[in-house]
Amino acid sequence: MALRLHHINLVTQKVGEMDDFYRRVMGQRREDTGVPVLEKQKGYAGDVAFVTDGVVQTHLAQRDLGAGFATGQIVNPVERGHIAFRTDDLQAFMRHLDEKGVRYSDWGDRAVAGWHQIFFYDPDGNVIEVHQVEEGE
């Protein structure tokens, strides 16, 4: 059930400008490997640019206030952004959250093909994602 930082998601209405800024000013490069395939028909159809420092990705996602409603989920990860961790055992992590009394939204693969994602809030209301890449992906 180990967790490792995978990406930071910044939400914007200026995906192109943000992409340019993070590459030109911040020295990030366009991410070409390990980029998720968005499931635009299942609840989130926004544009996303992917940049990286070579270790951690930054997802520059178009704000979508309706994504939670479209998927029937309480936590909307593209309302104001989130920090994301990858795990090798999401079911164990979900049991851990249940034991700790932390409520979460189980998005399954509604946003990203081949990723099972859950989202929850930290004590200050920041959104946290934990996901597992499904076998064969």
TrEMBL record:
<dbReference type="InterPro" id="IPR037523">
    <property type="entry name" value="VOC_core"/>
</dbReference>
<dbReference type="Pfam" id="PF00903">
    <property type="entry name" value="Glyoxalase"/>
</dbReference>
<feature type="domain" description="VOC">
    <location>
        <begin position="4"/>
        <end position="133"/>
    </location>
</feature>
<protein>
    <submittedName>
        <fullName>Glyoxalase</fullName>
    </submittedName>
</protein>
<dbReference type="InterPro" id="IPR029068">
    <property type="entry name" value="Glyas_Bleomycin-R_OHBP_Dase"/>
</dbReference>
<dbReference type="InterPro" id="IPR004360">
    <property type="entry name" value="Glyas_Fos-R_dOase_dom"/>
</dbReference>
